[in-house]
UniProtKB/TrEMBL annotation:
Substrate binds at residue 111. Keywords: Isomerase, tRNA processing. The lineage of its organism: Bacteria, Pseudomonadati, Pseudomonadota, Alphaproteobacteria, Rhodobacterales. This is tRNA pseudouridine synthase A. NCBIfam families: hisT_truA. The active site is at 52 (nucleophile). Its EC number is 5.4.99.12. It comes from the Bacteria. GO terms for molecular function: RNA binding; tRNA pseudouridine(38-40) synthase activity. CDD domains: PseudoU_synth_EcTruA.
Length: 257
């Protein structure tokens, strides 16, 4: 059976998350239902990461096995036709080796987070950003984030429901940029690691927001990390500003430079 890699983009608002749910809509369920329209029967796809309810993706990667030798472009077009009107799109497709795996072959995940700083309600970006009604000190936030780079026990910054065998992870980068747009200023966070714990990104951003508004010092982030105690974490920020931006592999299955 030929195996195909799918690059998936979606708006997470209408979904209970990536993972298939018995009685709630999921992104995985939407893609599997579209596959069943092309080749009748049950389909199970695997993804690079399981995003939570309300979390979006710009470059989620999944793989599926099909009976027919589809041309990748034709498969992408057919899936997009059957995914309508769900806010899910297959933006690229490639045939891969039979032992290639969207999750286990991945070497890197990249997350993107948008934080809008304005008092007026967001309109065009509603459901796509986390909004706070005050300006934030991004230099202080960068100083706090610097304590999190490298190999650490991230117990403080993971959900109590996290199923990872170990809280020890290597966080390769946290970049924070201020962007001025027509709707006002926003901070954009980019985090990169081989893998992340459940709620790790939202826990980190929520804690850094406390630094940005002066409730914490940058050193408070280091102390929270060293505590290895979930109670030391700042508030977990809401999901709507978070995007799975991309997944890295030893060789890009989609042939990008």
């Amino acid at each position: 059976m030929p195996r195909f890699a799918l690059k998936v983009e979606y708006h997470g608002g209408p979904f209970a998350g990536w993972q298939r749910q018995r009685d709630q809509p999921s992104v995985q369920g939407a893609v599997e239902a579209a596959l069943a329209r092309l080749e009748p029967g049950a389909h199970t796809i695997a993804a690079a990461g399981r995003t939570d309810a309300g979390v979006h993706a710009l470059g989620q990667v999944a793989h599926c096995d099909l009976a027919k030798p589809w041309a990748p472009f034709r498969l992408m077009e057919a899936l997009n036709y059957h995914l309508k009107p769900a806010p899910v799109a297959i933006v690229d497709c490639a045939q891969v080796a039979g032992d290639w795996h969207a999750r286990f072959s991945a070497q890197e995940r990249r997350y993107f987070f948008r934080l809008a700083m304005r008092r007026a309600p967001v309109t065009h970006d509603k459901g796509l950003v986390w909004q706070v009604p005050h300006d934030l000190d991004e230099d202080a936030m960068r100083a706090g984030a610097a304590h999190l780079i490298g190999l650490h026990d991230f117990t403080t910054f993971r959900s109590a429901m996290c199923q990872s065998a170990s809280p020890v992870k290597t966080l390769d980068a946290i970049d924070i940029d201020r962007v001025e747009g027509p709707g006002g200023a926003e901070l954009q966070f980019r985090l990169r690691a081989r893998s992340f714990l459940h709620n790790q990104v939202r826990s980190i951003v929520g804690s850094l927001e406390r630094v940005g508004r002066g409730a914490w010092t940058p050193e408070h982030v280091r102390a929270a990390l060293k505590a290895a105690d979930r109670a030391a974490c700042g508030p977990v920020c809401p999901p709507q500003g978070l995007y799975l931006e991309g997944v890295g592999y030893p060789e890009d299955p989609f042939g990008a430079d």
